[in-house]
């Protein structure tokens, strides 16, 4: 791609200082230091003028937004892994390349998934509220704050990709047995290292596991993959954890099943109507049945810098006339 002027890179959200400094050195970077992302007229203007747009997960780049793009927009370099907030099909039709930042969020998101499993099973967040809220008399009783042991239990991973496998490594160390359902069976070496059992039938796996973790992307095929019918297959002691995307679970059905005691609890980092969170889930959190996090699965200083570096490499490679390493291909959708 040859441009006489320096290509304009528009970023919708504040990024780590080190990333913004590098972007300013390399590109004509228009950065956003407001607390709110670019929306409405500001986003439309950015799309009109930009050669490259750098959105994040909170930016809804659908077909109507893309219709406002000017002729120069050739690359959407997403600051994040999941691209379900972008209509990638329409972008590709318009000749716009889309990239993401895979790999660098894997370990941190797997850590947070494990943290959610432990929090729900051992009531960590519930317990942590007691002393600051002065609800603790100082007494201790053998029947007080009992959780569930995780050692020896079965973990069912839905989506055995990078994060699913990183979670499986951690869970194995905690003494959980690993079960998984994936679009395709993973290689024999990985399966053997993780001592993982593959379930072609998601239904059959759900009926047998104690903890379910959702680690697949949100795509048309995974929307409500954990439907009301499938959630009903879980044991009443089962716990559901989701650090992937809210839309993969029928959240209303999940809340209802927890309310009536047909599922023990849940740990959720992502929600169907994000950033809105269902009042039913909030009520369940107050009752200590669910743990809710504000989409912080990958939120470490290190991952944000690494993500920024990936975005920069994708932009620079593209502007140098080569294929960026993290291109989204139609086969991935
Ligand atoms: N909470 C966070 O902050 C956070 C951070 C990073 C990623 N994520 C989410 O986690 C998701 C997974 O990330 P990853 O890096 O492991 O992705 P990945 O592409 O490495 O793995 C996803 C796996 O899901 C499988 N899959 C896809 N469709 C499926 C289906 N219909 N049924 C069963 N399996 C299916 C794929 O085959 C793949 O193995 C991302 O798409 C993103 O939405 C969330």
From TrEMBL:
Give residue ranges for domain D-isomer specific 2-hydroxyacid dehydrogenase NAD-binding: 114-297
The record's listing under InterPro entries reads: D-isomer_2-hydroxyacid_DH, D-isomer_2_OHA_DH_cat_dom, D-isomer_DH_CS1, D-isomer_DH_NAD-bd, NAD(P)-bd_dom_sf
Q: Does the keyword NAD apply?
A: yes
This entry's Gene Ontology molecular function terms read: glyoxylate reductase (NADPH) activity; hydroxypyruvate reductase [NAD(P)H] activity; NAD binding
Q: Which UniProt keywords apply?
A: NAD, Oxidoreductase
* A GO term from the CC aspect: cytosol
Claim: Nucleotidyltransferase is one of the keywords in the record: no
Descriptive protein name = 2-hydroxyacid dehydrogenase
The species is Methylobacterium aquaticum
